[in-house]
Specification:
The complex is a heterodimer of chains A (about 210) and B (about 190).
Chain A: H1 7-14, H2 25-30, H3 35-58, H4 68-90, H5 92-98, H6 109-119, H7 124-154, E1 156-157, E2 160-161, H8 176-209
Antiparallel strand pairs in A: 1-2
Chain B: H1 5-15, H2 26-31, H3 36-66, H4 73-95, H5 97-103, H6 106-109, H7 114-126, H8 130-158, H9 170-185
Helix pairs in contact in B: 1-8, 3-4, 3-7, 3-8, 4-5, 4-7, 7-8, 8-9
The chains are: A mainly alpha (about 210), B mainly alpha (about 190).
């Protein structure tokens, strides 16, 4: 239970943006047809989220309540523009693969949600930790989905062939319908995990009494 | 550059349907599609916002290019969208208070609907002129509306059936979306000529 007070671990696991909060679904489904793209997208989002959470938290006492959303969006858009140029400078191939989805990080509901729910109320250091935790949790979710889709859809992991030459790729998983199905399977898996944990927590006190 | 208007329309409406094939606007698609009445109203509001913001950002982009300030594009577009959403909110509040109460919290969230931001970005990247941009915006948002309505109708039907408790809600909606998406893959053949 001590983990719930740590904003970093909270975002990484307990409130995982992909599997628990179901936020930021567009890049989750669109960019996960290979593991490397999923990781790149996850890291870019984590970077933006850390910067925006830190900045928003730093100015939280100076922004009037009525214009706060517009201010947050302007800050997020600045962070995304920086990321856009950074990715372009670091690797042009990654930039081409992610395509329009880097500028679209602005419209990722996860980032605005964290700004509103956490950074607007808490001091700078916890906000940065929360941003990094949530961002990495998001990257983790994307890589989970990307692994399933790449292994089943192309028979590779990070471009390395896993199976023999007779493997017939299940192309459906690289196409849009496969994205929906793979995400549904992951959600079911995590829901059953949580259900089991809840049952265990309910049973324990009873055992202690008897 | 000189794509026929009809081709742009069919491409954005069916072949590359924003929701089911390009994965844009997932949040309202999964979050607001439980009831038909909410979903079509949301779809129409999004259509309005997308069309207005597309025309406005086309004009703004001309100014940005004239001043060599393309790096401000993203920030300008998102400000335009936020303003359009505010406008829609005021419009609906005045003309239909009942609808305003029903859409409630979701109206401001149109700002963070990536389909809305994607239309101006795509039309700039593809170099569409004003008429092409408008057709593209109407078709893309119409496709969004169509997908919302289809999914909400399917979800209303499954409401009565016996779904395992674990899969209720998002997981079941995702499976339905996947079947819809499979159906939309059939339209891919229509793009061969273009």
């Amino acid at each position: 239970m001590s983990g719930s007070n740590n904003p970093f671990l909270n975002g990484l696991w307990r409130q995982n943006p992909t599997f628990v909060q179901i936020l930021g679904m567009c890049p989750t489904l669109a960019i996960t047809n290979s593991v490397s793209n999923a990781v790149a997208m996850g890291l870019a989002t984590a970077f933006v989220l850390t910067i925006s959470n830190g900045l928003i938290s730093a100015i939280r006492n100076h922004v009037p309540k009525q214009v706060r959303i517009a201010t947050y969006i302007a800050i997020i858009a600045t962070a995304v523009t920086i990321t856009d140029y950074l990715v372009k400078a670091i690797s042009i191939n990654v930039y081409r693969a992610l395509g329009p989805f880097i500028p679209l990080i602005v419209a990722n509901c996860l980032i605005l949600e964290r700004a509103e729910a956490f950074a607007a109320k808490k001091p700078v250091i916890p906000s940065i930790l929360d941003g990094a935790g949530m961002g990495l949790g998001f990257a983790f979710g994307l890589s989970c989905l990307g692994t399933v889709r790449e292994v089943l859809g192309a028979g590779t992991f990070l471009g390395i062939h896993l199976f023999g030459p007779n493997f017939e790729p299940w192309v459906l998983f690289l196409l849009p319908p496969g994205g929906f199905i793979a995400l549904a399977i992951w959600l079911l898996l995590f829901a059953s995990f949580r259900e089991r944990n809840r049952n265990l927590l309910q049973i324990q006190p009873v055992e202690q009494k008897s | 550059m000189n794509e026929a208007l009809g081709h742009i329309f069919v491409d954005a409406f069916l072949i590359n349907n924003f929701v089911l094939c390009v994965f844009l606007g997932m949040c309202p698609f999964l979050g607001l599609s439980a009831k038909f009445s909410t979903s079509w109203r949301m779809g129409v509001s999004v259509m309005f916002v997308i069309t207005v913001s597309s025309v406005l950002s086309f004009g703004t982009n001309l100014i940005l290019v004239a001043f060599h300030a393309e790096y401000l594009r993203l920030i300008t577009y998102i400000v335009i969208i936020a303003a359009t959403v505010q406008l829609t909110e005021m419009f609906i509040k005045k003309h239909s208070p009942a609808l305003f109460r029903e859409l409630g919290i979701y109206l401001p969230l149109i700002t963070t609907n990536c389909a809305v931001l994607a239309v101006p970005l795509f039309q700039t990247a593809r170099g569409y002129n004003l008429l092409q941009s408008t057709v593209f915006a109407v078709a893309a948002s119409g496709g969004f509306c169509l997908a919302m309505v289809l999914l909400s109708l399917a979800r209303e039907r499954t409401e009565l059936s016996d779904v395992p408790s674990l899969a209720r809600g998002t997981a079941a909606a995702l499976v339905l979306a996947s079947v819809l998406s499979l159906a939309f893959m059939g339209f891919a053949g229509m793009g061969g000529g273009g």
